[in-house]
Design a protein that fits this description.
single chain, 115 residues, alpha+beta, three-stranded antiparallel β-sheet, 3 strands, 54% helix, globular
């Protein structure tokens, strides 16, 4: 699977993406760089798909990726899976913002789509 390296080593990248995914799941949106938002979108959609499956192996996979955050997994399997039950993908949207002042990185808001 091709992925963006995001300028960090593999462990840091996986941890960062897991943290961003947890923030989107718990808070509904996160402000980050456009590249990180595009990469995180894949994992948020995957977690919601796991929630819609609802079986034990999907719950364990979600728990493993979300670094044993039981609260986030509960939100995915109880709230988000019901919210997006009739939707086939496309659970997130990326809204572009202005450049960050310090390094001119393109910023974006990654948020869950409201029905």
């Amino acid at each position: 699977m091709a992925y963006r390296k995001l300028g960090v080593d593999n462990k840091h990248r996986r941890s960062m993406l897991a943290n961003l995914t947890r923030e989107v799941i718990k808070k509904g949106k996160v402000v980050t760089t456009e590249t990180r938002a595009k990469e995180t979108r894949k994992f948020v959609d995957k977690m919601i798909t796991y929630g819609k499956k609802g079986d034990l192996i999907s719950r364990r996979k979600a728990l493993a990726f979300l670094q044993n955050d039981k609260e986030a997994v509960k939100v995915v399997f109880d709230t988000l899976s019901n919210k997006y039950a009739n939707r086939n993908g496309g659970y997130t949207r990326i809204l572009k913002l202005d450049e960050r002042r310090g390094d001119d990185a393109l910023m974006a808001v990654l948020e869950l789509v409201e029905e």
